[in-house]
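Data deposition worksheet. Section B asks for the primary sequence of the deposited chain exactly as it was used as input, without tags or linkers unless they were present during the calculation. Section C holds the resulting structure in token form. Section D is free text for depositor observations; keep each observation to a single sentence. Incomplete worksheets are returned to the depositor.
Section A, Depositor: J.P.
Section B:
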Amino acid sequence: MKLLQDFKKFALRGNLVDLAIGFTVGAAFSTVAKSLVEDLIMPPLGLVLGRTDFSDYYLLLRDGPEVPGPYPTREAAEAAGAVLLDYGVFLTNLFTFLIVALAMFAVVRMVTKASDALQDEFGADDDTSETTPDTKKCAYCREVVPYKASRCPHCTSFLGTDGGPLQPDDRLTPKEPARTA
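Section C:
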């Protein structure tokens, strides 16, 4: 039973779920990028170069044993058993990769700029150094929390606001209303 609980804990960790979502979105994005290259970019490029389909570019290394060359298409050469160097298919895949890489670069750049803007807007500490830890333990429940957390997400205890002391911070502790006589 412990094995099942451990597997459940592993499978439902945030990192694994995020990875699965990223992989699924990446696969869908790759399909769209491949369609963009094959259906929208390659036909005009092929027309400029005098051919409408890059996948028909190949280099015949050896004629087929049944039918000697020349062959009108790559498919005819493959059917005849010829040995080919399919550089047209490689070029198509290379363009697909470059489009995906360019799109991923644009997304990462936008996220980085948005993150920088948020840090500028909300006054991120510029004096954080390499020695500042990422996490700390709550003084009450001893669970690991982010270093800059002001409240423990596990036991809801108040922590220091500057990532410092692990005891409650008077500035964050709710005050009791003044009693009138």
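Section D:
The chain has a mean pLDDT of 77.
The longest helix spans residues 14-48.
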